[in-house]
Amino acid sequence: MMDAVIAAGERLAEALRAENEALAALDMTRAAAMATRKMQATDAFAAATAAATSTRARAEGETRAAAERMALSLADLGRENRQLLETAIALQSRVIETIAGAAKPLSAAPGYGRGGLRRPPHQAPALAVTTRA
């Protein structure tokens, strides 16, 4: 029973690593395509864990050591995944704000302001994107 939990955990770790790679490279298309795989791996891991718990399966010896290593790995990968997702969401928000600002209607175009002086045109905020290889 514990072998099933470990196998499901390894599949989940693999899915998290792949998504983290895509997110770190700012490849949002590839990261989004991996969402289904990650959700399926999460569901399989939860099911295997629930089955092991309901049968009171216990890991002994090398299986226990493997389970502990897997738990630590999943915790690290999950933490990294959360940070990368937060960064990606913040970046996507900035991109959307920039596009929305650039697409303002003509009524927001420059005209005359106080004292009869022309208002300067609205400029979208600067946006920089970097990637790690």
How would the global form be characterised? Answer: rod-shaped
Question: Which structural category fits the helices and strands?
Answer: mainly alpha
Element string (H = helix, E = strand): HHHH
Residue ranges: pLDDT <50 for 5 or more in a row? none
Tally of alpha and pi helices: 4
Mean pLDDT: 85
Strand content: under 5%
Portion in helices: 55-70%
Radius of gyration: 24 Å
Largest sheet report: none
Distance between the termini: 39 Å
Number of strands: 0
Describe the fold and architecture.
The chain has 133 residues and is mainly α. 68% of the residues lie in helices and 0% in strands. The chain contains four helices and no strands. It has helices at residues 2-24, 28-33, 35-54, 61-102. Helix 1 packs antiparallel against helix 3 and helix 1 runs parallel beside helix 4. The longest helix has 42 residues, at 61-102. It is rod-shaped. The mean pLDDT is 85.
Defining key terms:
about 130 residues; 4 helices; single chain; mainly alpha; about 0% strand; about 70% helix
What are the SSEs and their pairings?
Layout (H helix, E strand, L loop, with lengths): L1 H23 L3 H6 L1 H20 L6 H42 L31
Question: Concise description?
Answer:
By secondary structure, this protein is an all-alpha fold. The protein has helices at residues 2-24, 28-33, 35-54, 61-102.
